[in-house]
Design goal:
By secondary structure, the chain is of the alpha/beta class. The chain contains twelve helices and twelve strands. The termini are far apart.
Length: 318
């Protein structure tokens, strides 16, 4: 009788353990509208793929308020919760996860990473690593700069700030340098090491560029009010890769990659892994044209006396 009771108790415990939802630990760099959209898109897509929140999966969402020194602590805490998966949001977090997450049985899905190959997170664009794969923000500057030329046909020189210490920014700049000349544009670069440098460094564009183009960069995208104020003072229109400042009418326009769609792309990859696929068998996702949109501020267009062409009229917002 005792053996039967022990067996029944064991089966009950196993049943309870099996019923526990799989924990997905989201390790985010900081709280920002774009990164929040990415996380929201990820969570919605995992649920859309058939995983019921609270029954099949549970999400633990933490961030370090853009403090790089706290990333190892964030990832160590995530690993200690014994999750079924860690989601590493941004390149610094994904890069740190390779070293900090020592339990290699935990798959790691990254997002908000521009080039995971250059960042040495995965070996190639054709496959993930043994532990990592995910969705990227790889830029389409051919489309972005074509949009800029449509909107500002007389533009010849564009100012591009970037952080030379971040792999994302290096990839962005390499693409920008390669594509701009093909469209008759000259890139004028300035290095930005941190938020406190932005206003002063941007002053080097005064009288030298026709527009400022803001790439996908952690230091820049978290400092958009400073960039908007500085470019306004210099009398230079600004184009962004996020649409939020355009909708706030502080930037002229954006050829914007949807962070929510990028998060959804990562969510589909996560679902495949939760269903049994290995990260190494899943290539990192690279955005397509369907992941982009264009937005133009009517208020800013009037300020800069920009005549929006008919082909872009549908992108104008009030």
């Amino acid at each position: 009788m005792l053996r039967v009771l022990v067996l029944c108790a064991g089966l009950a415990a196993a049943s309870i353990a099996a019923a526990q939802p799989k924990l997905i630990a989201i390790a985010n760099f900081g709280e920002h509208p774009a990164l929040r959209a990415a996380v929201d898109g990820f969570r919605k897509e995992v649920v859309r793929q058939g995983f019921v929140e609270g029954r099949d999966v549970a999400f633990d969402d933490q961030h370090v308020n853009f403090d790089r020194t706290l990333i190892p602590q964030l990832l160590t805490a995530a690993q200690a919760k014994k999750p079924a998966m860690i989601v590493a949001v941004t390149t610094p977090v994904a890069q740190s996860s390779i070293r900090v997450v020592t339990d290699k049985s935990i798959p790691i899905v990254f997002m908000s990473v521009v080039d995971p190959v250059v960042a040495q997170i995965v070996p190639s664009w054709q496959a993930g690593s043994a532990t990592h794969t995910g969705a990227t923000l790889y830029p389409d500057f051919q489309a972005s700069l074509t949009f800029l030329k449509q909107l500002l046909p007389n533009a010849r020189r564009i100012g591009v700030p970037y952080n030379p210490g971040e792999d994302n920014d290096k990839t962005n700049m390499a693409e920008m340098r390669a594509i701009a000349p093909k469209l008759g544009l000259e890139v004028v670069e300035v290095g930005i090491d941190g938020p406190n440098d932005i206003a002063q460094r941007l002053q080097s564009f005064a009288g030298k560029v026709d527009a400022v183009f803001v790439i996908q960069s952690n230091v820049l995208q978290t400092s958009l009010p400073v960039i908007a104020a500085t470019t306004q003072r210099m009398g230079i229109p600004a184009i962004n890769t996020l649409d939020t400042p355009v909708r706030n009418h502080t930037f002229l326009a954006a050829h914007a990659l949807s962070y929510e769609r990028m998060g959804a792309n990562a969510g589909r990859i996560a679902a495949r892994i939760l269903k049994g696929e290995k990260p190494a068998a899943i290539a990192p996702h690279r955005p397509g044209p369907e992941d982009y949109s264009t937005v133009i501020s009517r208020k800013q267009a009037a300020q800069w006396k920009v005549e929006v062409p008919a082909s872009l009229a549908g992108s104008v917002i009030d």
